[in-house]
Design goal:
By secondary structure, the chain is α+β, with helices and mostly antiparallel strands. It folds into 2 domains: 58 residues, no CATH class; 64 residues, no CATH class. A hairpin with a 4-residue loop joins strand 3 and strand 4. It is flat.
């Protein structure tokens, strides 16, 4: 096996991180929480994820738990690229039918033939 000099330099670094901040959020909420995502990504990939997380999390969203009849509603292939999004039409909820909600939790109960999802939104 050949020695990869780039890999050797990478693992020698004791700490590696990418940080994204939004001055507008910090101006309104100087004590805004820090989200730490530990991973083995390279700097470019970490930067992309940091920007996406900041974009998603700088807006307040409500989480909704929904129980659906049936299983197999969401397949593994639905997660390729990004988590699935939903549009809901529930008159009792403070969301419009045009609002996009993102999947943040998913479980299937095969014994009861139900799928439980948690969605967050609206996404801006």
């Amino acid at each position: 096996m050949a020695i990869d000099a780039n890999r050797g330099a990478f693992v020698k670094e004791e700490y590696r991180w990418e940080e994204e901040q939004d001055a507008e959020v910090l101006a309104i909420q100087p004590n805004a929480r820090t989200i730490k995502l530990e991973t083995n990504l390279n700097l470019a990939a970490a930067s992309v994820i940091a920007v996406e997380l900041l974009s998603d999390l700088k807006h307040v969203g409500q989480a909704y738990s929904i129980t659906l009849q049936g299983v197999g509603i969401i397949k593994g292939s639905d997660f390729i690229g990004s988590p699935p999004t939903f549009s809901c039409n529930f008159p009792d909820w403070p969301v419009k039918q045009t609002d996009k909600l993102i999947l943040i939790g998913y479980a299937e109960d095969h014994d009861r033939n139900i799928t439980m999802i948690t969605i967050k939104g609206p996404m801006k």
